[in-house]
Write a structure and sequence with these properties.
The complex is a heterodimer of chains A (439) and B (183). Chain A is mostly helical. Helix content of chain A is 78%, strand content 0%. The chains are: A mainly alpha (439), B mainly alpha (183).
Chain lengths: 439, 183
Amino acid sequence: MIEIEIGLALIALMAGLVLTGMPIGIALVLLSFVGIGLIRENWELAGRLLALASYAAISDYLFATIPLFVLMGLLVSVSDIGRDTFDVARYALRNLRGGLGMATVAANAVFGAVTGISIASAAVFTKVAVPQMMRFGYTPKFAVGAVAGSSILGMLIPPSLLMIIYGVLAEVSIGRLFIAGVVPGLVMAAAFMLMIYCLARFRPAYVMDVTANPPPMPEETAGSLAAKSVPILSLIALVLGGLYTGFFTPTEAGAIGAFGALLIALVRRRLDVPRFWRLLLETGFVSVGILFLLIAASMYSRMLTMAGIPSAIGDLITALGLGAYGFLLVYLVFVILLGCIIDSSSILLIVTPIAVPIATGFGFDLIHFGIITVIAVEIGLLTPPFGISAFAVKATLNDKRIGLETIFAGALPFIAVMLAVLALLVAFPGLVTALSGAA
Amino acid sequence: MSELDLVDDAAQEAAARPPRDAFGLALWLLNAAGTLMIGAMMLLIVADVVGRSFLNAPINGVAEICAMAIVAIVFLQLPAAIHAGRMTRADMFLAKLQARSPRAAEALEVVFALLTVFIFAVIFRASLPYFTDAWQQAEFFGVQGVWTLPTWPIRLCILVGTGGAALAGLVAAARSLRRAIAA
């Protein structure tokens, strides 16, 4: 019993340290060390387990996916692929009221299939879509909200950094998670577009200044449309097709995707050596942050198991008579609340090691549980005070007239839709398992 | 926030150039080596896929080599990430504290930095025997008789990375301490 008390005290301490601003990876490692040392009363062993984890936790082919998909995401962000996709979507939706807003969502969905980081989507579409929408009378609140809101598709539609992290922690196939994300991603995009359509139809003043001139018809020819859509479609076909047919492992898909994105950027002359060097360095910084967190999380989950935390919480939930769906509700609310305070990958690292054994006990399919978790975590990208996607829009926009509050307010309808889709996916697991097959 | 810096051009620009001071330069070089390995890993995997699919010539041991390389990449880049303050953290509280009492905020930074030094010193010390064993017993990985590579370079990367991370933590602690006193 004393182990559990140590474990719970340490979790409370960790919450305190993380909230006061200690780097999350450092806090996790520190408390795992202290926890194992106290529980086993053996500090030598605690140190040895840290050393073991720093090597064993990430020494796997699978982890190479992380830098590769980050590199791919950064490369597609500099090669004007986002702008082209937006142009094509705009053309396709030119006759609908609110078409630019829907085009933002559609372009984000397609772009999401070549990037695994929502922040890249938010940055790209802030540059591409916001100025267009504002020029044609869309309200700033709606324009920035649409970009921030639909950027979450970047990590829902595979490839997805969050799915890689979840897959590693829950020990489920990342390839299957990716495939499972396709249908929920499309459902989410469709729901976003429907919401925008309804707003534009029934509450037009929310979306735009109705007296402004409608945007002129975009001028596109069959040739220009093809030139704009072929590169991204071939990249998607290569990466998702390769994964779906099992021709590539996720790591290979990442390498091929990054290489393909590199070729596109080179052909379009969007890349010179200094710029490529900067992108590579940035890839390193982003991925070392995540990989170190994964090392830390493996130590932390070992500590939790030693302390018996997951089974204790499982017992507690059973004793409370919550049942499977009661547990899921409490869990999702908790994840969404955490999302207001800490960043998405850290939530997964802290919560997954505790929640997955309990979810297994309740008989949840771990792929289904993973997709639900990812969406709940992604809501945190849009919720104040700490919402990374809103921050990214703000930083990229660099316009003093549009404050963070405007972006958070504009993203609210998107959060509502995400909650609705989340409920839908909980109720109909078939939407998740349709392509990936049941476990 | 490490994720947020992605959109900060100035920070990327600064990170791309080697710094002037010796310590910063050493960390920058380690970071650059890790960065180049990411590019090399991509090319290696692409070469394997192309070789295997079209030329009937797969490359042996790509999966094992990448598994090792990823450890090296993380530990080569870790010191630079700490030095540049790029570790993921929730800094809302610190930002508020900074506005109210810069001295208290810097003092808290000193504590965090010293704890960073502590944990990396622990991992360094505990990793040392793994390196000496790998070195003395000439441990290798791979398939005997087909291809083998020694494991000590990876163990060395862990030592260099954790040692460098501890030093970067010390430098950060000193920096914050000076600011706390000056504030």
